[in-house]
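Entry: DUF1491 family protein
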Amino acid sequence: MLLSTDLWVGALIRRAELGGAFAMVVRKGDARAGAVLVKVVDRRAGTVRLYSEATRGDGERVWMQPTKSDFEPDLDAYAERAARIDPDVWVVEIEDREGRHFLTEAVED
């Protein structure tokens, strides 16, 4: 049984905060089944990454970078397009000095 999206997002934010990062919901989607985009910002290093959840053929949940751009306006535009296509999508932004994403599932490059 999978967690509802609102609980999963709350746990991600809590993990980030416990790790010394700042995390917030930028866009709130459907509480039960919305997809999630995670934007990770390291202002000190000047890096930004965006992660999108996906499901492998074997049913395992993984995270991937849906675009290879590291230009923040490009990533924000991607998130806006995703929200127009799927109004249930959530966007979580994490600001961390080490650029950590705090995702516990597999992350693919």
